[in-house]
Amino acid sequence: MSNTLNWSLPKEKALVSFFHNNCTEVEDNGSFKGPEFARAVKHVHKQCSGSMKDVKSIQNKWQSLCKTLCVVVTIMGVSGFHWNDENGVNIDASTALIWKEYIKVHTKAKPFHNHRWASTATTSKQSQAADDNNTSDSD
Asked: Does this model's pTM top 0.90?
């Protein structure tokens, strides 16, 4: 049975880090190859203590993280909202009415009212580091 519960932040970070560092293994359709999920199981287990995740759990978690990232990126692109890695959208009195209307249509955005998504900062930092490395390589 796959262990889909109890994903700690360190385990999420280890998973994101693994796939970020192995992004060259993506198939033409944009998803990772099957063997990469098996390698991710070993990586997460090596990096973090606790219950061992299986391939299905890794696949489910990765899919969930990707869906959440899409929601967060969409929020970040909406004019009038300000995202930060500490407070999410950081809704206040001046944006509360707009947010209320927004979440009627975008229900999956609701948790980010004044709550961050911890993986955003990790993903952003890794992407920036990769961009910096690519820039320095081309100099």
From this structure: no
